[in-house]
Design brief:
Strand content: 15-25%
Shape: globular
Oligomer: single chain
Radius of gyration: 31 Å
């Protein structure tokens, strides 16, 4: 999990602390317990605590409660009614209640007399509660201060994270099982583009067609030194970088050749989780998602809507699930299996028809990659007995690593908003098994492992023939000059692209209307603009230039009655500020748009440091109740928080930074591997000019990595110097 986790809220404060302290990765087992509302806390409180008085005057402890932010929402209206309870030495004070706000401001002070007779002056407790008229108040979090430490500093001020009430322990702890979690907090410093240019050029040269065999060893070294744990991430970063450079086809071709050189048994080709397999998998996800949605959308929706009971395995048939066949007649096991077989054949027939038709709209770049894979395998295994291996090579990616996983888990591929229920999930699994069998092009092997699949054998055999015809058409599309295909390819593999229907509201100086202001628009994020129009192909549209965007943030749920609203704050040439509100269908869609827009605006200079998570309505901000509309904001912005997943838009600098971090970590392993391979091949020190070029290339890589390391060190030193100056100013 990456830096966007900072925006999520976790029930365990321990995990927050451990992740922030380690700065890398936390891996461990957590006991599952009953949910305790008093431990579900979040947010921060702004306090100023000081010790007053000197000499003969009795000293006093002063606690000034200023404000709080991002408090938990405990009430049905999507907010809370927070107040503060301050305790010290047996005395308790309470602040006023701020109604309907998760960003309250109090500006109240409370004083306590310090008991000098005590050797330990005790703890100051600051608790935040949600006030309720009828039921008991809800706990929102607390902060504890050691007064002994405070007396030496005299004053302490800042934002303090609210924690749970640790005095309470669940009686069920450890009795509900355990869950293993691995959390990783990534906070990358991305340098200006010029710093990554040498690395990007070197990587581009390593896959170029003009290299005469000197450089592909560089990709081979990356392949050989990348561990299984990091292979998927490295593959994803490399694919995105080469997509941005227009060289992804050449990069994948180098990996195909390396994989084929290592493969002696055709049946194991591309079946391992090698860099080639992972890179091809990432490529299909990045470049082919629109294609996949068009291919599978109708059949997946049909299965979800019909909710039919489908089961072929006699040991798993449940008669009560199937219901009655007719008036008062219970269905038998054979009835259910026969009915299930007919349904699955219907689903499979519809899917295969869709696959056959998809050759005309499959993105050109995917066609070209499959074409070169097809040819490479044909060259490697030319014998007639291996004539179907070239087809299996294509289906091993298209069916086994792309279509089948999407059928089994449609939510993960954004084909559905929610996961399937148990009945629908079983139907999807059986359909995916049939597709995998067709992709393997071996009906006998499947039926020997799962004999109850034999009823689908005629449909599967027909599917194998149809799939071969499809692949033949697919790999022959690589030289097509069809303009529509070219356009679709550029849309899917452009440097930044996201689109879809959203509900949208635009406001300048207007106050928010009482009724719902949202209207449906087709929103498109391109490389330079965010545009929106009433229909997808409308000639009339409005747009916002990306460099003018100052913040992209979430909106409080209580503002519009939806938890999936975001705001885009931009400035016009006249200096006026404009806010665009987007209402997404789900939290997943909200996170994807937030991530895509933040990444697209990552190099903007005129960004805001704080914003209002509420709306301006009835002459005040709903979040903090400030009356000035031009008030700067009550919460900090999150410009760098992105998902960093395969469905994000391309960010060449970020991909180069992530690849640099990986190469830096395996630098010594690459050097050792290279010299080990030279020894195995019997290469002497004074050998060929070609080998000298490889050594020079490796030295050049290490020199580039050192330059990037030095640049990062300079940035860190500059940051430390800034912080030191700020600290000195505060002391002054």
């Amino acid at each position: 999990m990456t830096a966007w986790l900072n925006e999520a809220h976790y029930s365990s404060g321990l995990w927050k602390e451990r992740t922030c302290q380690s700065r890398t990765c936390v891996d461990g087992w957590m006991n599952l317990t009953e949910i305790d509302p008093d431990e579900e806390v979040q947010g921060e409180i702004h306090l100023q605590i000081s010790v007053l008085g000197d000499g003969d005057i009795p000293r006093k402890l002063c606690c000034q409660v200023l404000e709080a932010r991002d408090l938990a929402k405990k009430d049905r209206n999507g907010a809370s009614d927070p107040f503060v309870r301050v305790r010290y030495n047996g005395k308790t004070y309470e602040s006023a209640v701020v109604k309907k706000s998760c960003y309250p401001r109090w500006n109240e002070s409370f004083e306590f007399e310090l008991d000098e007779t005590l050797s330990d002056t005790g703890l100051l407790s600051v608790e935040v509660w949600d006030w309720d008229l009828v039921s008991r108040n809800d706990f929102l979090g607390k902060v504890l201060f050691n007064i002994n430490k405070l007396q030496s500093a005299q004053q302490e001020e800042g934002w303090f994270r609210l924690g749970p009430d640790k005095s309470k322990h669940s009686e069920y702890e450890g009795t509900l099982g355990s869950l293993r979690l691995q959390l990783r907090l990534r906070d990358e410093v991305v340098l200006p583009s010029s710093h990554y240019k040498p690395l990007t050029e070197l990587l581009s040269q390593s896959v170029g067609s003009q290299l005469n065999g000197n450089w592909p060893d560089f990709i081979m070294l990356i392949d050989e030194t990348t561990t299984a744990e990091s292979r998927q991430e490295v593959a994803n970063n490399l694919v995105k970088l080469f997509l941005g450079q227009g060289l992804v086809k050449e990069f994948l071709d180098v990996l195909f050749k390396l994989e084929l050189e290592k493969t002696t048994e055709p049946n194991t080709l591309f079946r391992s989780n090698s860099l080639a397999s992972k890179s091809m998998e990432s490529f299909l996800k990045v470049a082919g998602m629109q294609y996949l949605h068009r291919l599978l959308g109708a059949i997946i929706n049909r299965i979800f809507e019909e909710k039919k009971y489908v089961e072929l395995d006699p040991s798993k048939v449940e008669l009560k699930e199937a219901g009655c066949a007719g008036l008062h007649r219970q269905q038998t096991e054979s009835d259910i299996i026969q009915q299930s077989s007919s349904l699955l054949q219907s689903y499979l027939s519809e899917l295969l028809t869709s696959i056959l038709q998809s050759a005309s709209y499959c993105p050109l770049l995917i066609c070209q990659v499959f074409h070169q894979l097809y040819l490479r395998v044909q060259e490697r295994f030319p014998d007639p007995e291996y004539r179907k291996v070239k087809f299996i090579a294509v289906t091993s990616f298209l069916c086994l690593r792309f279509i089948s996983p999407a059928i089994m888990s449609p939510k993960l591929f954004h084909l559905r908003e929610k996961h399937a229920d148990a009945r629908t999930s079983r139907t999807l699994l059986l359909l995916a098994k049939a597709v995998q069998t067709i992709g393997n092009m071996d009906t006998l092997a499947c039926c020997s492992k799962e004999p109850w699949m034999v009823c689908l054998q005629p449909a599967i055999q027909q599917g194998i023939t149809q799939l071969k015809d499809f692949i033949t058409k697919l790999v022959s599309c690589h030289e097509s000059e069809d303009l529509e295909l070219q356009t679709r390819m550029s849309l899917q593999c452009g440097t930044m692209e996201k689109e879809g229907f959203l509900f949208l509201h635009r406001t300048k100086d207007k106050c928010m209307p009482m009724t719902s202001p949202f209207k449906k628009y087709y929103v498109t994020l391109s490389k330079d603009t965010l545009s929106y129009s009433r229909t997808q192909h409308s000639k009339k549209s409005s747009s916002i230039s990306l460099p003018k965007i100052r913040a992209v943030e979430k909106v409080e749920e209580k503002c519009f009655g939806s938890a999936n609203v975001m705001q885009i704050i931009s400035s016009e040439d006249s200096g006026l500020q404009e806010t665009l509100y987007l209402d997404c269908k789900s939290v997943n869609e909200l996170n994807h748009w937030l991530s895509a827009l933040r990444k697209a605006c990552s190099h903007n200079t005129n960004t805001m440091s704080c914003y209002h998570p509420g709306i301006y309505k009835a002459d005040r901000w709903s979040c903090c109740h400030q009356k000035e509309k031009s008030d700067s904001g009550c919460d900090k912005t999150r410009h760098g928080v992105t998902l960093q997943e395969w469905y994000d838009p391309l960010d060449p600098d970020l991909e180069a930074q992530l690849i640099y971090q990986h190469l830096r970590s395996v630098q010594q392993a690459m050097r050792d591997k290279y010299y080990m391979l030279r020894e195995q091949q019997g290469v002497k020190e004074a050998d060929s000019v070609r080998d000298k070029k490889k050594v020079d290339g490796l030295s050049k890589l290490f020199s580039i990595l050192q330059d990037l390391h030095d640049a990062h060190a300079a940035v860190e030193e500059e940051e430390r110097s800034k912080n030191k100056n700020v600290f000195l100013e505060l002391q002054t």
